[in-house]
Specification:
single chain; 342 residues; alpha/beta; DHBP synthase; eleven-stranded mixed beta sheet; five-stranded parallel beta sheet; binds threonylcarbamoyladenylate; binds magnesium ion; Sua5/YwlC_C; cytoplasm
């Protein structure tokens, strides 16, 4: 069941209905400022299990607990006083902190870990649902496991269809990539996943933050820093390659070998048969990225190419997602393409 809802002034009837579904142990898909989430009442064991089931998510990959305030976060986690002050300034927003759990939620929410990931989303719809419920909601992104995260209600429908009890369609999400995850149980804090809350901004609040290679998408973690890191994510069916040199040259090289190519481009698109424009700047590119990856699979081409972007600001999150989507295929020179398409 899908219902429309104004993202900025959520319809109270829709909010009440969503809370009712959650109270009964159902699951609700709703937008956040980052991507759509698939939510359950965080205290409902049945609801949380259903999230894993519907998404086909391995049970050892924990959920994020969404709260409306630092006070609510303190009901599920231990928040040290210095962190409390920081969270009061950065929440609501696209930043998830991994902290010590109080162990009050069903085990499956945290996959049995003694830590819990919490965030207050900066989106009126989930905030209103949490307030109506008077309790946190737990959930991952509302895509089928292994698919790009959903940034529209249509994406949720495409992946999960009628297995979701209620889909709240609040239009496209604002940022388009998942929240920044930072493990603040370590000193210095460790970036587990880059997102819209940039490292540059994080460091203003936390001082030095460690950025391990896995957070840049450069490696798959053997020993997972975040449990989710060991799973393949955001993988389109069509091979994708990140290009560090002139895009037009890359397209020519590939087409000369008889390959049908689609180009995901930022800013001006090169002359090519099939282009998927990502937008004029990196914020637009982040917002359109997952839809572009879904489009790529529908074009029926042999390969997609996408330009590398600078790993600064939101560019770090974009490169992390692109590296995962491309299965780490990166070409620094035309000759590198030979090894990739062989
Ligand atoms: O923006 C977002 O983060 C969206 C919206 C819906 O809030 N959520 C999201 O969740 O994208 P997703 O699908 O990435 O799943 C939660 C992530 C996983 O990567 C998981 O490994 C990590 O959070 N996580 C959860 N609990 C954790 C913990 N205790 N320690 C480390 N990582 C944890
Ligand atoms: Mg996800």
């Amino acid at each position: 069941m899908l219902v429309k809802c104004d993202p900025l002034r959520p319809d109270p009837d829709v909010v009440k209905r969503a809370a009712e579904v959650l109270r009964r142990g159902g699951v609700v898909a709703a937008p956040t400022e980052t991507v759509y989430g698939l939510f359950a009442h965080a205290y409902s064991e049945a609801g949380c299990r259903k999230v894993f089931q519907v998404k086909r998510r391995p049970m050892d990959n924990p959920l994020i607990v969404h709260v409306d305030s630092v006070e609510m976060a303190e009901t599920v986690a231990y928040i040290p006083p210095e962190l409390r002050d920081i969270l009061r300034r950065v929440w609501p927003g696209p930043i998830t902190v991994v902290v010590k759990s109080r162990g009050v939620l069903p085990r499956c929410v945290t996959a049995g870990l003694d830590t819990v990931a919490v965030r207050a989303p900066a989106h009126p719809i989930p905030l209103a649902i949490i307030r109506e419920l008077g309790a946190p909601i737990a959930g991952p992104s509302a895509n089928r496991a292994g698919r790009p995260s959903p940034t529209t209600a249509e994406h949720v429908l495409e992946d999960l269809g009628d297995e979701v009890d209620l889909i709240v369609d609040g239009g496209p999400t604002f940022f388009g990539v998942e929240s920044t995850i930072v493990d603040v149980t370590r000193t210095p804090p460790v970036l587990l996943r880059p997102g819209p809350f940039t490292v540059e901004e994080l460091e203003k609040f936390f001082g030095r933050v460690e950025v391990p290679p896995v957070a840049r998408g450069l490696a798959e973690a053997d020993v997972a820093l975040a449990p989710g890191m060991k799973y393949r994510h955001y993988a389109p069916e069509t091979p994708l390659v990140i290009v560090h040199f002139d895009l037009e040259e890359a397209v020519k090289w590939l087409e000369a070998r008889g390959l049908r190519v689609a180009v995901l481009c930022v800013g001006e698109c090169p002359k090519a048969k099939r282009t998927i424009p990502l937008g004029g700047d990196l914020y637009e590119a982040a917002k359109n990225l997952y839809d572009a990856l879904r489009q790529l699979d529908k074009l029926g081409v042999d390969i997609g190419v996408v330009p590398a972007v600078e790993e600064r600001g939101i560019g770090l999150a974009i490169m992390n997602r692109l590296r995962k989507a491309s299965g780490h295929r990166e070409a620094r020179r035309p000759e590198d393409l030979a090894a990739i398409v062989k």
